[in-house]
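User: Can you write out an input/output pair for a complex, sequences first and structure second?

Assistant: Here is one pair. Inputs:
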Amino acid sequence: MAETIELTIDGKKVSVQPGTTILQAAQQVGVEIPTLCYFEHITANGLCRLCVVETAGVRGLQAACVAQASPGAVVHTRSPAVDRARRTILEMLASTVDLSETPQVQALMADYGARPERFNGAQPRRPPLIDDNPVYIRDYGKCVLCWRCVQVCADDAQYAYAIDFGGRGFQTRIATAFDKPLTETTCVFCGQCVGVCPTGALKAKREYLLEQGVSPEEVFGLTRLQGKGKRSRRGPRPEVS
Amino acid sequence: MASSMTPDLSTLEPILERYGPQGRTRLIPALLEAQKIYGHLPETVVEAIGQALRVPLAEIYGVMEFYTMLYQEPTGRTMVRVCTSPPCAQKGGRAALQAICEHLGVAPGETTADGAYTVEEVPCLGLCDHAPAALVGETPVAQVDPGDPACWIEAPQETPLGLVGGSHRWLTARCGVIEPTDVEAYQSHGGFAGLRRALLEMEPAQVVEEVTASGLVGRGGAAFPTGLKWKFTAAAQAAARYVVCNGDESEPGTFKDRVLMEGDPLAVLEGMTIAGYAIGADKGYIYIRGEYPRAQRIIAQAIEQAREAGFLGRGILGTDFNFEVEVRSGVGAYICGEETALFESIEGKRGYPRLKPPYPTTHGLFGKPTSINNVETLCAATWILAHGAQAYRQAGTEDSPGAKMFCLSGDVAHPGVYEVPFGTRLGDLIEMAGGVAGELQAVLLGGAAGAFAGRDQLDVPLSFEGLKDAGLPLGSGVVMVFNQERDLRRTLLSLAEFFAHESCGKCFPCQLGTRRQLEIVEKVAAGEVAEVELEALRDVQYTMTNASICGLGMTAGSAIGSALERWPDIFRNGR
């Protein structure tokens, strides 16, 4: 059996197996580290950097979701350096993306005293909502680029490869090949991307329509292709004028 | 025009037959060749490439969207790329861009109605010693004249190599002296002596020891000990190992690697071969930025010549050591100078830097142990093997042995590459280049990712320890000089634009931070920044420096931040 690693997180001693991340080690001793892009069942990429922590003697900050626990490390999950970085990331994010359906980030912003208004006149990312199929809508104005949808669509789950990235830098976006409607791609409408989206950027079309105040009867009409699918699942016949 | 017709795929077939079996790693080469045929990348062509190389279409589109030199729309038969990075902007790069656009009746990014030209504004062509510079088709053009744009696009005159000087012409001894790809001339000027010594007289481990003893550290900017890198790579357990030469020199103000690749390509190949022998690799890749078509051409020629003469290929110098080198072209992404992003690019992907650890010495190109070295580093290894570690230590300081190539640009009398021993005073180096043209205001050291030095720092010795004491970086050896006439706010804006353009977008601090930094610096340049915004800028820079994934993000705020710390008044009122 491999030797265990002893380290200290916020003054608490913890011993873990080699290969354990700082995030997992912190969870063992009940220390909560905020995350946004991280999702347990998807390859971690350390993108959002909200989980950064400070380790004594190590330059810069480490992303706890990917940095492995090392022997004797003294980790601080809240420090002026950590808070400054987290607060700034939250502010930059909030001045870019519509976070209205991401309550956990709003809670963090209150916790860290984030003031996105410091970035007066900052350019947001607000592309128009894409409604190109009967299954789900894509409202990329709410997308934080956590990559989860791309990963489950590809090697982390579905191997469908319907979506990847467009643009780069601040202009990065989630895109189908040549920005075609999803119905013209390799999408199999498995819905996994919708399931892992943390911000409401991807949403089941029925949920979206109900939120828009469309009646359940009409919703069935709009999200079912007429005459297709099992009769029992077709729902009540819509009375669309 | 071609775009309105269905492209004829038969011309593409030989390329697909050749590249298909090798799969995804051939994606970018295939796209580039297809682009040469069709002028851009039509959808049907991309689909055929995806089928042949077995790459999902969405991922190919992701690659096309990432790299600026892959085009989805028809382009002109000749691309006119005008450089507007700080050294070129100082000398009239923007005026040249405006003149060419007016002459052709297009805006930057547009194509003329007759399909002859597309004009682009580009961030740095690595021709800072020839500022203002342009790349017309595949021809680098020096000192483009805003007064006569027709002249340099219709009959572009190829620039000469450029001025090479300095007190210690070690790596540059042959630059501009011999015919670059002539193997015999190379040998009669001391070439292949290092390779001979390594292969015929030394064990691989001894080669590593020799390089370690020389104290050579990487010349790309990170300054990692080269001997140690080779040792780690050699020690890693694997069925295959690779040598990668990083010729993606894209740091605004840097052009030394171009001078070496164009002026002494065989020394670069010799260095790669020595590295291959030392670490136990039989394959090397040299990744050269897309803006260096001439360097790519010369290196490719040198590979042919070296192979013909038996210095590459099977059984080199009668030993059982085999080594091959393959050229890969960058496609317009500064981030690909980052070592792991460069691997991703060779593997046919978007240039996203990987998380480290694991490091390239164990998990590099194709997941295999890889020694990735800068062009100048490999040329220095060639020199060290030929002359010995002790000879190398004759120059420089105890902690910074040897000589270094510096790129002098901007307001100096004679811009060019100067090779001098470590420890040379900054002021002496500038004097060597003929002194400041005008009265000195500032020096940008280390490039866009570097830091500003002031008039009071001319005595700083250019060594790792001397610069560290002064709080300045060596970076890749950029010395960009600004006289009192220059509005530094304009330069800061240009640097901020550069990073916002080149951020890959992977991690949030850099993806968002480079944009927020640009927005605030735009206000600085317009003279209307609020104090609270400068405070926010400091937080953005702090966050990029400490929380980004890779070196690009970590240094994206350093030059601007150094100016903010040193000259806060410039941010508030321009002086």
